[in-house]
Amino acid sequence: MKVTVFGTGYVGLVQGAALAEVGHEVCCIDVDPAKVAALEEGVIPIYEPGLDRLVQENAAAGRLTFSTDPAHGVAHGRVIFIAVGTPPGADGGADLSHVLAVAQTVGERMEAPRLVINKSTVPVGTEAAVRARIAEALAARDRAELDFDVVSNPEFLKEGSAVADCMRPDRIVVGVTRDDSEALLRELFAPFNRNREKMIVMDPRSAELTKYAANCMLATKISFMNEIAAIADRLGCDIEAVRQGIGSDPRIGYHFIYAGAGYGGSCFPKDVKALIHTARAAGCEPHVLRAVEDRNADAKTAIFEKMQAHFGARFGERGLKGRTIALWGLAFKPNTDDMREASARVLMEALWQAGATVQAYDPQAMEETQRIYGSRDDLRLCGTKEAALSGADALVVMTEWRMFQSPDFEAVREALSEPVLFDGRNLYDPERMQGHGFTHYGIGRGARAPGEVKMDQPRTASATGTASAAE
Ligand SMILES: NC(=O)C1=CN([C@@H]2O[C@H](COP(=O)(O)OP(=O)(O)OC[C@H]3O[C@@H](n4cnc5c(N)ncnc54)[C@H](O)[C@@H]3O)[C@@H](O)[C@H]2O)C=CC1
Ligand SMILES: O=C(O)[C@H]1O[C@H](OP(=O)(O)OP(=O)(O)OC[C@H]2O[C@@H](n3ccc(=O)[nH]c3=O)[C@H](O)[C@@H]2O)[C@H](O)[C@@H](O)[C@@H]1O
């Protein structure tokens, strides 16, 4: 089938390449000429495992092409995907200007029947708004007789495993009302729908809400665990033990209940905000979602507060001023170079504010960090994780890249001027770290200095003077 995809970001490029891989003829359109020029050269603008091969092979086979020309895109695809950004607007609601711009283009250019598939994450009612925009543009050309349909097909891929998620989706949600459109969708997605029925068909408004409900449910799980972790810190319990204890109940499950330095990325923060906005506009106060946001804001600063308390106890008023902190992990999660809403950014900015210097390393996000922050005296971007340690007063880990999971702890301890480890993703076992001679601070795991029992258990009984450091 001839397919056009508008938007070559994480969703559009991966979807376009996946559709080409199964034999469709795909043309990807983007308004960013630099992006399109790079893609035409086989250069992938984002880091996503497996995507370079998928794009390069399908482009070489002629099944995947790129263009900045929207007219060409509308002429090419019997089906047209909208996969452009929907960033938060000033009021927290999703900004639909890019989505509606594509709808406008379709209405202005189409000459034959078209099925428009909206993949961007959009508020309930957008399918109708896209439909109206296309109809208006057609009417303005006196071509109202041209047949088109608009369906909702939200995307559930995760960055870092986008190709695998797209090639083997766990479900394909479609919001569609016309039988012929459903039949076309079934034909398009047949290669992804083979081993069991994955297509969940519903009305477009419910499909649009399904996407927000999924992301908000996941964000809620994380914020819930971060809340329990904050309680565990104060009560001297270990959140990891609690996670195992509750995850064994199949009604709860082990997935997505890791406490840590908060959720980031391009989607959870904006989608929670957008659903809050939608709920309020519909006259429903979103109590849970507001709490999810509040807890996440606290989770993002929790590690900094532990650092502040530690260095305050150590150096009094000077605290973090003049300290050098080694930071492992800048991306909002492993296997991506994406730093949108990354917890590491909140931490770095707080450290700079407190007068500390950051020596940072990330396997993929160094260029992005440089792009965002430019050159500054209090940021040293290091070529290896070892180089970031050199002479630092503590190590803080903010992204759970595999390469950080089992470092040579001896070497880490020797490189640091003090063996202090702030573990923003609960990567390391506190007792083992204690054994390696570190003072270890996790999230919801208390804090331990070598040779001591948990420093914050119970909160008021510490003789070390650093009890509050764990909070
Ligand atoms: N990033 C992710 O993991 C996921 C994102 N989503 C949703 O998918 C949508 C797209 O997200 P991303 O791919 O991350 O965005 P992105 O920001 O990476 O890419 C969007 C692309 O659209 C292009 N664009 C903007 N206006 C255009 C137009 N009129 N015509 C053609 N191209 C245009 C931009 O230049 C950009 O390259 C958003 O609604 C997002 O919420 C859904 C699931 C996963
Ligand atoms: O709509 C989207 O864009 C996508 O948003 C998320 O995917 P993504 O943002 O790529 O990353 P996740 O793996 O969900 O992680 C998001 C954040 O939550 C954090 N997280 C995740 C899991 C966990 O147990 N604890 C936790 O703190 C991660 O560190 C990360 O900062 C969803 O998982 C996808 O299903 C969805 O399609």
UniProtKB/TrEMBL annotation:
Keywords: NAD, Oxidoreductase. NAD(+) binds at residues 30, 35, 86, 121, 159, 270, 340. Residues 448-471 are annotated as: Disordered. The keyword NAD applies. It comes from the Bacteria. Residues 460-471 have a biased composition (Low complexity). GO terms for biological process: polysaccharide biosynthetic process; UDP-glucuronate biosynthetic process. This is UDP-glucose 6-dehydrogenase.
